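Project standup — Tuesday

K.O.: blocked on the structure for the chain from last sprint. Re-posting the sequence here as requested.
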Amino acid sequence: MPITRTLHGPAIPATNNGLVESAFVALQMQGLAARPESTGARLLMQQGPRKVDTVNSYVQSFGVYTAYCNSIGEDCYTFSVELAFLFAAFMLTRIARTGRPIQSIRTYFSAMNYCFKIRSLGEPWMGGTITDLNRMYELASKQWRIDRGISAGNLRTEIPGTGLRVLFYDATAAMQESITNLSDKSHGSHTVVCWFAVFLVQLLFWFRADTIAGYRPGDIRFNQSGAMDFTVRRLKRGTAHAQPFSKSVPAPQNPILAAVFAVIRHAVTLTDDEGSFVFSNELWGDKPKQVSDQITKAMDSLLRYDQLFIPQGSFVSSHSWRRTGASGFAAAKGDWHVLTRWGMWKVHASAEAYVNSEFQPDSIFVQLYEFLFQTISASQTAESYNGWIGYESASDLAEDGIFNDARLEQ
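H.V.: unblocked you, prediction finished:
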């Protein structure tokens, strides 16, 4: 299979990682995935300065833009405000797998900057007009959903502590019904309690739906001291197949956390008539990209929204558990370093994007995350320590390269 050589000659520095990355992108666009060297190429790029999945996502996003430019006879490597506006308008009409336009095109503009930059064309897809266009698109996307009675992602909210008490009550009731009908393996209560266990695992560990998608029976374990361990196999789509690692929670020392443990412990042992575990991909499906949708559907079916005190006009989805955990811990004056570590955020800005600064403090979060509060030293009590020493302004974010690298999680 012939290749088009865009980078060649003795003038190329032997240690220029940027050019190696550029060559990889060019080869990707020429169909590297179908070549016999594709596996080795991916392994090489994994040792580079940028994650190969990030590069691949940029290539994929830029491919959408390239196809659009080709359809209207425009050069994808020529920047103009008019073309940026037309592409944004096009994306509002492009229906994604969810049956609606995507909520933001910031990732696409980041991809465009990346592909322009490796061709020494600068980074015109940022600042000024592009900032305005990003804002306009997100508002237009939101309005598109509102006009059709569809939940908009930027209206996703957290579940307050008063609502969590209802959740824990319902989860415990579901467990009791499952225990009562334990001899009937096909009884619907077993599926119900397993869904509640999924919600509680996400709330406890601040997991995304993608992490649930990677779960295998036996990945949740309890030792003789009563501690719980979860083997993580997936993080998020960009780093889906992670090297497995463990996240553990010590044995509970209060009734709230003990009740959460009890529901999860019961759910992971349930099997159906064929001996297969109910708490598995038989519950949420074997297609990772659809697990989030399945969890959200289960939430819509099982949660008593009228009892959760969710703000009018807002909604909850599978990602709300992660937001609830981070916001609740922060509102209870949890330590900032502990928050970023437990949520596995590499930069403060990513964590701050998940924290609702107006979230109401509630003692239930101190009980639910007692093991996180116990990591704070005696000299850093909730009364004397303010862990929120992070980014204070947009300029702080810009100086750290957050906007340029599109590192804010969506």
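K.O.: great, moving the ticket to review. The radius of gyration is 24 Å. The chain has 18 helices and three strands.
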